[in-house]
């Protein structure tokens, strides 16, 4: 079943004000940014003043700013959080992204609320509940397939925001307690220690060592660029890029890449981008040329082997294989240009990633000032592309607003009108001046067209120029330029004037939650959250893991990724083998047991006391 909406949205991460503006300039229809506190990336908080500036900038283009407040809140933080929400609303934020349901019990301004992926939204009945409660958008679990997303949309009218690119947590979001268990840093509090990127020993049922000191839980990054049209047909409204902690070259490149891909789909469609403007890129976006651990569509189509990256570091783009190796150089079978300053890497004989910088190269030959242990046929990747990064760093705003100009003569001078295509933004300016007939008619008309067709360093692009003159006149170039500058400056001032923020007052109701009992996996950390669930029919609930770590059987991660499947031992797919079955993981002397729910294709990592 296909779902057709009027607009779709490309949503990019904003580490800060600068990054937020950059994302908007390189293709984003909306950005998400961390609040001063209570965001799932604790190190990516931003001031109210900067968020207000970002909102003002975004709204010029009918773009939106969503603020992440998606940690769980402790009791002593409720008052502070409520005050902060009012400040964010007054700053112009379009929506809050939240995990803690206690927020809905606060005295809130009329700001839209989005359900974070941290709220672990998988089942249609839970997402329907969020819709009936009053949320305007849900970010479902990354693990959902295309068919599951489509089914949700068939049963609900709520907006769906789906991750399409970036790093993947191996655990269902909001359901990982490994970091909090090992130390004091909780992912649900924005301080994840990235335990899924650590090295473990994998032990079999016969206590044999299957893998030693390997990153068995470190997944490749997500890339769903081949499925954008399918996701639109499934009813997805917003396409989300992960990466609030990535650098600005990643942000420019990946945002531009998805913008180009979306625009190709929308070109012959009735669906439009949700913000104003078009984009003219002075580089060819390529997500393999910035940070990546390799790519996977991650369960969107089907379960696939080789989801693990084997590293937590960036692997980058495959250049080719080593065809010659000597004491001080290697020669790579590649058609790519290799430049001084590039970073190259490969996996050694132990499966560990190793890398080096290029200080001297000739064609596909790379000189190395030390002996490199690399065999013929080894795959070489480039995880730092010096020339590409130079282009990205030099590239400025790529967003342009197409403008129609009309230059006319009046009784006592000239008039120039300007309107942005497909919008209500329009200005008209006139000047009283002597109208002097041109001696060189052809040159006068050429100057007129040339000067008025320029847009300089503005955000505008002159897409159409209409002349309404009874004769050709001599007008000095300086005057023509002044006419154009003053008119476009007036038009620029109007940007954002027509912006209308969607507002919604959250009104508590008593719609029933799908279940009546909740464990610590509901992440209930305050009395307001308890009140919310009680209001919605939950009769038994356990407080959050972070407040009171359970003393019996602790499920520290729940994953759709399966180590047994990755080893070729899935009872549903693979033929039986004599290889030892995985039983537990060891990390820093602690044992974590693996439990497999094969019926539901899930794996649990459990600490037993």
Write the layout of secondary structure elements.
Blueprint: E1 7-14, H1 17-25, E2 30-34, H2 48-59, E3 64-69, H3 78-91, E4 95-98, E5 112-115, H4 124-133, E6 137-138, H5 146-155, E7 159-166, H6 178-182, E8 200-204, E9 209-214, E10 221-223, H7 228-233, E11 238-241, H8 248-266, E12 272-273, E13 278-279, E14 295-296, E15 317-325, E16 329-333, E17 343-347, E18 353-357, E19 360-362, E20 365-367, E21 379-384, H9 386-394, E22 399-410, E23 413-420, E24 426-432, E25 436-437, H10 441-452, E26 460-468, E27 473-474, H11 477-494, E28 517-518, H12 527-535, E29 540-541, E30 553-559, H13 563-566, E31 582-587, E32 590-597, E33 602-608
Parallel strand pairs: 1-2, 1-11, 1-12, 2-3, 3-4, 4-5, 5-6, 6-7, 7-11, 10-14, 22-26, 28-29
Antiparallel strand pairs: 7-10, 8-9, 8-31, 13-22, 15-16, 15-21, 16-20, 17-18, 17-21, 19-20, 22-23, 23-24, 25-27, 30-33, 31-32, 32-33
Helix pairs in contact: 1-2, 2-3, 4-5, 10-11
């Amino acid at each position: 079943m296909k779902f057709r909406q009027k607009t779709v949205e490309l949503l990019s991460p904003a580490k800060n004000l600068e990054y937020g503006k950059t994302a908007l300039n390189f293709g984003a229809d909306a950005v998400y940014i961390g609040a001063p506190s209570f965001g799932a990336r604790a190190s990516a908080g931003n001031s109210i003043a900067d968020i207000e500036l970002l909102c003002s900038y975004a709204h010029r283009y009918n773009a939106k700013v969503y603020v992440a407040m998606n940690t769980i809140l402790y009791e002593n933080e409720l008052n502070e959080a409520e005050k902060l929400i009012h400040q964010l609303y007054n700053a112009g934020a379009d929506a809050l992204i939240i995990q803690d349901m206690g927020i809905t019990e606060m005295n809130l301004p009329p700001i839209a609320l989005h359900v974070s992926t941290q709220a672990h939204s998988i089942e249609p009945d839970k997402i329907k509940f969020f819709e009936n409660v009053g949320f305007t958008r849900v970010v479902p679990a990354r693990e959902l397939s295309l068919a599951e997303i489509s089914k949700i949309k068939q049963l609900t009218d709520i907006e769906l925001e789906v991750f399409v690119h970036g790093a993947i947590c191996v655990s269902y979001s909001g359901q990982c307690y490994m970091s909090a268990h090992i130390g004091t840093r909780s992912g649900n509090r924005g301080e994840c220690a990235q335990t899924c990127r650590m090295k473990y020993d994998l032990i079999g049922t016969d206590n044999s060592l299957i893998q030693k000191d390997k990153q068995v839980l470190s997944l490749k990054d997500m890339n769903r660029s081949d499925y954008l049209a399918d996701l639109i047909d499934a009813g997805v409204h917003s396409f989300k890029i992960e990466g609030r902690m990535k650098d600005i070259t990643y942000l420019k490149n990946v945002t531009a890449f998805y913008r180009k891909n979306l625009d190709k789909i929308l070109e012959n469609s009735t669906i439009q981008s949700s913000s104003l403007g078009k984009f003219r890129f002075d580089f060819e976006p390529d997500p393999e040329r910035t940070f990546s651990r390799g790519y996977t569509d991650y369960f969107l189509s089907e379960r696939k082997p080789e989801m693990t990256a084997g590293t937590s570091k960036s692997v980058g783009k495959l250049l080719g294989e080593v065809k010659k190796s000597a004491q001080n150089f290697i020669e790579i079978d590649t058609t790519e240009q290799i430049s001084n300053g590039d970073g190259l890497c490969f996996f050694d004989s132990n499966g560990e990633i190793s890398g080096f910088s290029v200080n001297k190269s000739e064609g596909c030959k790379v000189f190395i000032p030390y002996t490199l242990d690399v065999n013929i046929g080894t795959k070489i990747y480039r995880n730092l592309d010096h020339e590409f990064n130079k282009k990205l760093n030099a590239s400025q705003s790529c967003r342009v607003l197409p403008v129609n100009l009309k230059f006319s003569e009046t009784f006592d001078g000239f008039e120039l009108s300007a309107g942005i295509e497909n919008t209500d933004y329009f200005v008209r300016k006139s000047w009283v001046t002597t109208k002097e007939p041109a001696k060189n008619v052809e040159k006068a008309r050429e100057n007129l067209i040339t000067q008025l067709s320029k847009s300089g360093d503005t955000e505008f692009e002159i897409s159409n120029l209409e002349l309404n003159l009874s004769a050709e006149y001599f007008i000095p170039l300086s005057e023509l330029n002044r006419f154009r500058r003053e008119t476009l400056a007036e038009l620029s001032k109007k940007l954002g004037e027509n912006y209308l923020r969607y507002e919604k007052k959250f009104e508590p109701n008593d719609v029933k939650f799908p279940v009546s009992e909740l464990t610590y996996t509901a992440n209930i950390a305050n009395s307001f959250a308890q009140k919310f669930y009680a209001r919605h029919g939950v009769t038994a609930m356990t407080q959050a893991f972070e407040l009171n770590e359970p003393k019996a059987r602790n499920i520290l991660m729940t994953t759709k990724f399966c180590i047994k499947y990755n080893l070729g031992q899935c009872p549903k797919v693979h033929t039986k083998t004599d290889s030892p079955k995985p039983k537990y993981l060891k990390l820093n002397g602690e044992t974590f047991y693996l439990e497999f729910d094969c019926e539901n294709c899930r794996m649990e990592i459990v600490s037993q006391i």
